[in-house]
Amino acid sequence: MELRLSGDPALSAVCWLGVLDGDGTVQDRASTGGPRMTWVGSAESMAQCAAFWVSVLRRPVPTYLLNRKASPLWAVTLSHCSAQHAADVLLASAEYSLPPKRRKLTAIAAHRSARVSARLGEER
User: Fold this and answer.
1) Is the dihedral of CA 78, 82, 83, 86 positive or negative?
2) What is the rounded CA–CA span in Å between residue 35 and residue 81?
3) Quick one: pLDDT at residue 99?
4) Superfamily grouping for domain 8-119
5) 29-36 contacts at long range (C-beta below 8 A, 24 or more positions apart)
6) DSSP alpha helices (H): ranges in the chain?
7) How many angstroms separate the CA atoms of 97 and 103, rounded?
8) Where do the structural domains in the chain lie, given as residue ranges?
9) What is the pLDDT of residue 72?
10) What is the pTM of this model?
């Protein structure tokens, strides 16, 4: 059975913040060479996750099969500039989330590069 989020929640950043808190990972610069966040779930829910981020980031967001042998899990990963933009969106969506992941999201957003700001039409 596939998990699919219904209607409005799938279009909400706060929904994807909750999924990230529950079934995702957030890595800041230390271990990956750049910020990265990954959501994990069913093929259907990850297609919805990718569609949400495509609408926000206005760029392709691939989904990929994470584990072929066990239960089939799919993932969506955002890295570098996309992760920085997504961190801003997620932090703005809700005042509260799990503290360890929120600290990492805050660190990612704080290290936003001038290039990302320029791409988004912002002044630093």
Assistant:
1) negative
2) 8
3) 92
4) Homing endonucleases (3.10.28.10)
5) 29/111, 32/79, 34/79, 34/80, 34/83, 35/79, 35/80, 35/83, 35/84, 35/87, 35/108, 35/111, 36/77, 36/78, 36/79, 36/80, 36/83
6) 13-23, 29-32, 43-57, 80-93, 99-110, 114-119
7) 10
8) 8-119
9) 79
10) 0.81
Place of tokens 């980031």: 57
Residue 117: both structure tokens together: 């700001």
Measured over the CA atoms of residue 101, residue 35, residue 16 and residue 77, the dihedral's sign is negative
Residue where the block lists tokens 């961190």:
87
> What are the pLDDT tens digits along the chain (124 aa)?
466 677 777 789 999 999 999 989 999 875 557 899 999 988 888 989 999 999 999 988 887 877 666 667 889 999 888 999 999 999 999 998 999 999 999 989 887 655 556 666 665 4
Element (H, E) at 79: strand 73-79
Tokens of residue 48, six digits: 């919805």
Residue 119: per-residue pLDDT: 63
